[in-house]
Design goal:
Elements (H helix, E strand, L loop, with lengths): L5 E5 L3 H13 L3 E5 L2 H11 L3 E5 L7 H10 L8 E5 L5 H6 L4 E4 L4 H19 L11
Parallel strand pairs: 1-2, 1-3, 3-4, 4-5
Helix pairs in contact: 2-3
């Protein structure tokens, strides 16, 4: 049996973590929530999530610092990270720092689920063994 993808939510607002967890679990995902940048970084390293939803404004380590640490670590480098921010953070800066996507708060539920599904599908296709991928034969 193939397990459902694990999504790590890192946000300092309990209501956001709870709401996102509920929506993602309804969509069939496993969810782990953290409330500080340090907790999120440690959870990413220990749990090996398939995707991370990362708030920019966090206590201890801000989202951009967490993202930088994730990208430096070979164990977490390939995990897709979606930056979620209500703060004045530029999308271009988040993407150039290594985020796979950026959503400005408040975002629509269907928009979030579309981004999650798309990134997980992309990650799955890049992790398949070569024999599973379509190859051009010359």
């Amino acid at each position: 049996m193939i397990s459902q993808p694990l999504i790590l939510i890192v946000d300092d607002e309990e209501a956001i973590v709870t709401g996102l967890s509920y929506r993602l679990k309804q969509a069939g995902y496993r969810v782990l929530g953290c409330f500080t940048g340090r907790e999120g970084l440690e959870a990413a390293r220990c749990a090996g999530p398939d995707l991370i939803l990362l708030d920019q404004c966090l206590p201890e380590l801000v989202g951009s610092d967490v993202l930088s640490e994730l990208r430096r670590d070979p164990a977490t480098r390939q995990i897709p990270v979606v930056i979620l921010s209500g703060a004045d953070v530029r999308q271009r800066d988040a993407l150039s720092a290594g985020a796979a996507a950026f959503l400005r708060k408040p975002y629509r539920r269907d928009e979030l689920l579309d981004v999650v599904e798309s990134l997980l599908a992309q990650a799955e296709s890049t992790q398949r063994p070569e024999s599973w991928q379509t190859r051009k034969l010359f």
